[in-house]
Specification:
Layout lengths: L2 H16 L8 H35 L7 H24 L5 H22 L9 H7 L4 H25 L10 H61 L5 H20 L6 E8 L2 E6 L9 E2 L3 E6 L2 E6 L8 E5 L2 E8 L2 E9 L7 H44 L7 H12 L7 H11 L11 H4 L7 H8 L1 H9 L5 H12 L19 H16 L10 H10 L7 H20 L27 H6 L15 E2 L1
Antiparallel strand pairs: 1-2, 1-8, 2-9, 3-4, 4-5, 6-7, 7-8
Helix pairs in contact: 2-3, 2-4, 3-4, 4-5, 4-6, 5-6, 6-7, 7-8, 7-9, 8-9, 10-11, 10-16, 10-18, 11-15, 14-15, 15-16, 16-17, 16-18, 17-18
Length: 622
């Protein structure tokens, strides 16, 4: 494996381990994790101690120490075996649980008693070994257990050392002397050291609790900021203030749930300035239009509380506050109120993390609201320009009638299969209006000529794609950019035999769909040079041209949208008084006899007429 791959692997491991802070960390959880790690550490210490006593045995064997060989061998070998037991439990058997640490402390006490009973004052310091080992757990109960069991162990060890008297140089040869001059002072000394150990453990436990609490707060704030950042990305690029309001209310609700973990989803409302009005939605994203004009203020009632907001406030910037059980956010742009949010949610007065995250959300969203308002105005300007040009083109020929309007609506229906989001779909719908704008430059006698065009006339007609592109010119904006490509390519054929000879994937993908819409409507419509085709024949013609004239994907989308496109044709007839020109989706043209419609489209045929979008409501003026 190369060094570069190794570095990449290490980075991934680190990201996996540290990429997201655990804001649900508790002291109990930490103690459980620490207990497992401490067991292993205890096992390592005991393993080292076991080898250390064996090393002392070797030193005694070679004459460095001068302790009775038999006594030394028995005590050191037995102690080493007992020292190895904690290592086996924690590393080999990998046992866990509350009992493990108490068992290992007890095992160490047995070793200490045995060593002192045999070697007496030569190993006096070992009485501190259990206490030191217990401190690594940061567990006050374990320290107390070690303290209360070590004291009788000291007494027992001195008693046994006196009774066995295995070393002749031990000065404490009577039980009374062993207790009075051996055990008693060492118990007192041990208690003094144990007191220090208890204080260290207490201090460490408190620091641990604070560290966990601070870590939780840091993690909580970090996760909140990360969510705000992702939400900010989610809000960017929106062109419709109403869509923005819907996403804002969802984002705020998710943010409150993440930061506060409420038992129920917070209830709230969000309002944004949409032109001259405030458009408001509830926490489910449904319009509620609760605002009322109060002169220099707007007022509304929410969750049994009344709110008044100044439309203008000098030297006031966006802010968030928590008061009387509500989270209130106000968005201002140079003193002008551009939006607000109110959620029914209790927040602790000293919840610093919540307040900071709300402030970050407020200030980041303020700029997005302001940018969206500008983008919205620019987009609507482009839409009005596109519509005006389309109307001029439409009125220039009585033959085309409402062809441009219908193609735009067809594009809206079929666009769901090519557009990535709602914003792009709306751009596509508007851009499709301009597909035939170049016909403004074509002589009317050619456009409305009855009968077939001559080769020369058709050559002039083909130029309308170039004229249309030039009319749009370098007009800025996404709508005009997409319109330029659609205008230029909407008469190209998949097999490359179109106006400009462009073929396949080289044809603009949006133009491929407009091409189907354009032909569909042209064939269904009556013209001076032809009669309207029956819908059945139009369907068969378009589907038969899949892979030749049309992009197969666009044809598949057409099949799915066919019935709905017929309804659009009904809504915008060229002549409302000409019943022969109206082709109903409920007429005999679309029946079960049409075996080319799949089962899904047969079901869609029974759907009611297209309804008005329920999100379009009349807002309250301020």
């Amino acid at each position: 494996m190369s060094n570069e791959n190794k570095d990449t692997l290490k980075k991934k491991k680190k990201q996996k381990a540290y990429g997201k802070l655990n804001i649900n960390l508790s002291k109990d959880q930490f103690m459980t994790d620490n207990e497992t790690k401490s067991n292993k550490l205890f096992g390592k210490i005991c393993l080292f101690a076991g080898f250390l006593v064996l090393f002392c045995l070797i030193l005694n064997e070679v004459g460095v120490f001068r302790i009775a060989p038999v006594i030394m061998r028995i005590s050191c070998i037995a102690s080493a075996i007992l020292f190895f037991i904690p290592f086996v439990i924690s590393y080999v058997l990998k046992r866990t649980g509350e009992w493990v640490k108490y068992f290992m402390i007890t095992d160490i006490l047995l070793i200490v008693i045995m060593l002192y009973s045999v070697l007496s004052y030569h190993v006096m310091i070992v009485w501190l070994f259990p206490l030191v080992c217990s401190i690594i757990y940061f567990d006050k109960r374990l320290v107390h257990f070690t303290e209360f069991t070590t004291i009788p162990a000291i007494v027992l060890g001195h008693y046994l050392a006196c009774k066995f008297l295995l070393l002749g140089d031990d000065p404490l040869r009577t039980v009374e002397a062993a207790m009075l001059y051996g055990a008693l002072p060492r118990v007192i000394l041990f208690l003094a050291i144990a007191f220090v150990g208890r204080q260290v453990t207490k201090k460490a436990s408190k620091m641990l609790s604070n560290a966990i609490e601070n870590s939780n707060e840091i993690g909580r704030m970090t996760n909140g900021i990360q969510l705000v950042m992702s939400q900010t990305q989610n809000l960017m690029g929106i062109r419709d203030m109403r869509v923005l309001a819907g996403r804002m209310v969802t984002n705020l609700s998710d943010l409150l749930v993440l930061m506060l973990n409420p038992e129920t989803k917070p209830v709230g409302t969000v309002g944004v300035l949409d032109g001259d009005y405030f458009y408001t939605v509830d926490s489910n994203g449904n319009p509620n239009n609760i605002c009322r004009d109060l002169g220099d203020e707007i007022g509304f009632e929410f969750n049994n509380a009344r709110f008044k907001l100044n439309k203008r406030a000098e030297n006031v910037t966006s802010y968030a506050e928590e008061r009387e059980g509500f989270v209130n956010i106000r968005f201002y742009d140079h003193g002008k109120l551009t939006g607000f949010a109110v959620f029914r949610q209790d927040v602790e007065p000293d919840d610093y993390s919540m307040k900071e995250v709300l402030n970050i959300y407020t200030h980041s969203t303020t700029s997005i609201i302001n940018n969206t308002m500008l983008t919205f105005d620019m987009f609507r300007t482009q839409e009005q320009l596109a519509y005006s040009l389309a109307v001029v083109s439409e009125n220039s020929s009585q033959e085309t009638g409402q062809h441009i309007r219908r193609v735009s609506e067809y594009a809206r229906i079929m666009g769901q299969y090519v557009c990535q989001n709602e914003e792009q779909l709306e751009t596509f719908r508007i851009a499709a209006m301009l597909h035939d704008i170049g016909k403004l430059m074509i002589p009317k006698e050619i456009i409305e000529k009855p009968g077939r065009l001559t080769a020369e006339e058709f050559g002039v007609m083909k130029k309308h794609v170039i004229y249309g592109r030039d009319i749009i010119g370098n007009a800025p904006g996404e709508v005009m950019e997409m319109a330029r490509r659609i205008i230029l390519h909407h008469h190209e054929r998949w097999d490359g035999t179109g106006y400009l000879g462009v073929s396949g994937e080289d044809i603009d993908k949006f133009a491929r769909y407009v091409s189907v819409c354009d032909v569909f409507d042209a064939l269904l419509s009556r013209r001076s040079y032809k009669a309207a085709w029956p819908a059945q024949k139009v369907y068969e013609e378009i589907t038969s041209q899949s892979g030749r004239q049309f992009d197969p994907s666009a044809v598949e989308a057409f099949k799915k949208c066919y019935v709905e496109m017929l309804r659009i044709r009904d809504q915008f007839p060229d002549d409302e008084n000409d019943e022969e020109n109206i082709i109903s989706a409920d007429s005999q043209i679309v029946t079960a006899k049409n075996d080319k419609l799949d089962e899904q489209e047969q079901k869609r045929r029974a759907l009611p007429k297209i309804q008005v979008d329920p999100s379009i409501v009349t807002p309250i003026s301020i």
